[in-house]
Specification:
The chain has 2 domains: about 5-60 and about 170-330, Rossmann fold, CATH 3.40.50; about 60-165, Rossmann fold, CATH 3.40.50. Helix content is about 40%, strand content about 15%. It has 13 helices and 10 strands.
Length: about 375
């Protein structure tokens, strides 16, 4: 079977072989109209890109990033990836799943978050798949614990690979540069109209940063819009622009023919009204969007990222005067069933004590 060749390498052949990449996902992901949801919000030309279908085992937006970051880890001869996230992190689980396919083990450095049912599922999946669970009571303690884990691995004869939260390193951003180019190819092939807007959630900002670059390199006039789901101090227009500039500079060093792009914070469109008081605390507007997406379009969204992103998109489009244009929602949530991943694995009683408490504490209240 012929190995898929990324659009990035087809358009810029100098990058091939010099930018680490390994195929992990099922791309391109399909695009389709959301006519029922569009009619509901009075915006008829509404489309979805199904990145929830990016891999059969575990999909979502992280797969695109891992195709570049895990390839780099493997190229460097690393056997372990140390990565970071809140306890229910989809990124850490995706790293555990797809890293395992490449023979890489994962250490998850976890920080607290509100109790949610998906958190419990993700923790059990990580445990069943052999992720080393390191729980730290606050972000301030992360550097010391990560250094301890790193040194212990080093003394054991291996040098781990560090991967930041959300996989939003320079190479991780390139995963969504590829997504932007893929959207451009789908527009060119007549599979969908050129969108005026494309919407994603913003947690660490890597998905949005890559999309900004990718859509521009594809020659589209599409305006990417991100919906913030974490504290503004953690992700904002400036952090997204910085990630995009770093990725563009990295690619340009390898291929100087890459077009120059002006990526500034002023050009980043970020919606700030959907995050709620705390990361991973569900909101009534986000859950309403989740319910509408399921009822009208059969999409499986969730309350931390994709539900808030859809709620932000609906509010933005309802207020828009450009109701005859096309808008694209990128479904970044995994929709593959998780039961097979934790089948036969140990239960909550085998988890570290502070993590085990998340299975007895009540689910966090929904914000109005």
């Amino acid at each position: 079977m012929q190995v898929r060749r990324p659009h990035l390498f087809r358009r810029h052949p100098r990058l091939e072989g010099r930018v680490a990449w390994v195929p992990l996902g099922d791309f391109p992901t399909p695009v389709s109209p959301m006519s029922r949801l569009g009619a509901h919000i009075g915006f008829p030309n509404l489309w979805v890109k199904r990145d929830d279908l990016s891999a059969q085992t575990y999909g979502g937006n992280k797969v695109r990033k891992l195709e570049f970051t895990l390839a780099d880890a493997r190229r460097r001869g690393r056997r372990t990836v140390i990565t970071f996230g809140a306890l229910g992190s989809n990124h850490v689980l995706a790293t555990t799943v797809h890293g395992g396919r490449l023979g890489l083990s994962t250490v998850g450095m976890f920080v607290p978050q509100p109790v949610q049912e998906y958190l419990r599922t993700n923790v059990l999946c990580n445990q069943a798949l052999g992720c080393q669970i390191e729980y730290v009571e606050g972000r301030a303690g992360l550097p010391a614990r990560a250094a301890h884990v790193y040194l212990s691995k080093l003394l054991g004869g291996e040098r781990p690979y560090f991967l930041w939260m959300g996989g939003s390193s320079t190479l991780g951003v390139i995963g969504y540069v590829e997504a932007g180019l893929e959207i451009g190819a789908q527009v060119e092939a007549g599979l969908m109209p050129e969108p005026a807007f494309a919407f994603v959630p913003a947690g660490t900002g890597g998905t949005m940063a890559g999309l900004v670059l990718g859509l521009a390199l594809a020659g589209l006039r599409t305006r990417p819009v991100c919906v913030r789901v974490v504290e503004r101090s953690l992700v904002n227009e400036h952090t997204v622009a910085l990630l995009a500039r770093r990725a563009h500079a990295y690619l340009s060093r390898i291929d100087p023919s890459l077009p120059e792009l002006d990526v500034s914070a002023e050009n980043v469109v970020m919606l700030h009204g959907q995050s709620g008081r705390q990361y991973a605390r569900f909101t009534a507007r986000g859950l309403e969007a989740v319910e509408l997406a399921g009822e009208l379009e059969g999409l499986h969204l969730e309350g931390t990222y994709s539900g808030k992103a859809l709620a932000g998109m609906m509010a933005f489009l309802r207020a828009s005067a450009r109701r005859t244009t096309t808008a694209l929602f990128i479904d970044t949530h995994n929709s593959a069933p998780l039961a097979p991943l934790m089948s036969g694995g140990p239960g909550p009683e085998d988890l570290p004590g502070p993590v085990r408490e998340y299975f007895t504490r009540p689910i966090a209240d929904v914000e109005p």
